[in-house]
Design goal:
With 464 residues, the protein is mainly β. The chain contains 3 helices and 33 strands.
């Protein structure tokens, strides 16, 4: 029977699309009729048995936006046509069905409204959103939470890594039966920087680097906290959150609108995606000092591989954009006038102004204390920029008195018994760029927490 043959053929056409269209990816082999793509336009090949082609007058493509849509005739072509071309107006789930009209004018199947879809395609061009935070655990072991937000996530491809002291990336293992939680082997090995990779079923990919605390410091405890600034690390971690079509760098999600560094020379990390067979032929870094009104070529990366060393002219705020061309020279267009930069960095090489005003030993109710007063200021001063230390000789080693104090201008230190004697006091003041000013008191302060007590033990003959 023609009807039965055509009905079977109608399903076979769209199931073949998952194999013949590279832009469309199958979710799993067991679900080949529902596939995901990050392309809004794709081809649906028409496969017709040559023995049946002469009995078919035309082929119709029906589409509906699932799950609540109605079937609508999208296109009608001759039986000699090799493919349908479909362009999705927006992201979403689309159902497809094919109706063959035979030479007598009868449709097969007779009523498309009673048929299920021959193919389901989910169009998703939005990359996942990723957030990483340190969280406390009952055992006290360091732990990170990686949250991925996406309409079609692929949890099997979520990956969390930390930057080791040798600048290599090490995978952080996830916790069994606790999706999204990852055990940190040792905070000392993390260097403050973690990298999260998230991929959805359509192939959209997000790579995000987050600095949990400044390089060279350690967190007091694995408590939940938002990402903080670079703090003077020698490289700029860049968040790339793209739909696999971006060849540039995008602004990172830090607690400020710009990344602070304390050197004009730094390493700029970047990602290049959606490479074709010709590869990458050119990578350029462009710079603006006036928010895109004028652009200047800063440098070209000869090795075309992240990171690239850049030298900025001096202190100030700079906008940066990456320009990439393929191996055939296509692309690589410099930023246009008025185009916003992808990433911003502020160079601050000036140390905070710092002065030890007085260091004195307490008296009366403040006996056994050392009173320290200071003055500190900076345009990028940390919220808690003050560290105090003491030493018996004004040289290393220095023992901490208190770290992470607010810039209140004074501190009262209760001296422990084992620290009595002549003490030199040191003041360190830090800014968010990683600059540190150090002041050491010129004269030691005498601290004696012991209070002599006398006891009568007897008498002795006096002189006559």
């Amino acid at each position: 029977m023609v009807t039965k043959q055509l009905g079977l053929w109608g399903n076979a056409v769209l199931m073949g699309a998952a194999i013949l269209v590279p832009a469309v990816r199958a979710q799993t082999p067991a679900m080949q009729r529902k596939i995901y793509t990050d392309k809004s336009a794709f081809k649906l090949p028409i496969q017709i048995d040559e023995k049946e082609r002469a009995r078919i007058r035309e082929v119709q493509l029906y589409v509906k936006a699932a799950p609540g849509g109605s079937w609508a005739l999208k296109e009608t072509v001759q039986a000699t046509q090799k493919e349908f071309m479909f362009r999705a107006p927006k992201d979403g789930e689309y159902w497809f069905a094919v109706v063959a009209i035979d030479i007598t004018g009868r449709p097969h199947p007779a009523d498309v409204n009673k048929e299920g879809p021959g193919l389901i395609v989910v169009v998703d061009k939005q990359p996942p959103e990723v957030d990483v935070q340190a969280v406390p655990t009952a055992s006290g072991q360091p732990c990170l939470r990686c949250e991925v937000r996406d309409s079609n996530p692929d949890p099997s491809k979520t990956k969390l890594e930390y930057e080791a002291p040798d600048q290599s990336w090490k995978v952080i293992e996830s916790m069994p039966d606790q999706p999204g939680l990852y055990l940190v082997p040792d905070w000392a090995k993390v260097r403050g920087v973690v990298r999260a990779t998230a991929v959805d079923l359509a192939g959209n990919k997000t790579v995000k680097e987050v600095q949990l605390y400044p390089a060279g410091s350690q967190p007091a405890a694995p408590a939940a906290a938002p990402p903080v600034l670079n703090g003077g690390a020698p490289s700029l971690p860049v968040e790339s959150q793209s739909n696999k079509m971006s060849s540039g760098i995008t602004q990172a999600s830090y607690t400020s609108a710009r990344q602070l560094i304390n050197s004009t020379r730094t390493l700029l990390k970047y990602n290049i995606e959606d490479q074709g067979p010709s590869g990458v032929g050119k990578v350029e870094v462009w710079m603006t000092k006036d928010e895109g009104q004028t652009w200047k070529l800063l440098c070209e990366d000869p090795k075309r591989q992240s990171p690239v060393a850049i030298d900025l002219p001096g202190e100030g705020v700079y906008g940066l954009s990456l320009v990439v061309a393929n191996g055939n020279g296509s692309g690589g267009t410099p930023p246009a006038k008025g185009e916003a930069p992808d990433f911003r960095v502020e160079v601050d090489t000036t140390k905070p102004a710092a002065e030890l005003l007085a260091v004195r030993s307490g008296t009366g109710a403040e006996a056994g204390m050392v009173l320290v007063t200071w003055n500190a200021s900076d345009k990028n001063l940390k919220s808690e920029p003050i560290d105090l230390y003491y030493s018996n000789n004004g040289k290393a080693p220095w023992t901490p008195i208190a770290k992470g104090l607010k810039n209140d201008g004074n501190h009262r230190w209760t001296v422990p018994p084992d620290a009595s004697g002549k003490l030199y006091i040191r003041l360190d003041v830090s800014d968010d760029a990683g600059n540190i000013s150090t002041c050491i008191a010129k004269q030691p302060v005498m601290v004696d927490v012991f209070r002599p007590k006398g006891h009568i033990v007897g008498t002795a003959p006096g002189e006559k």
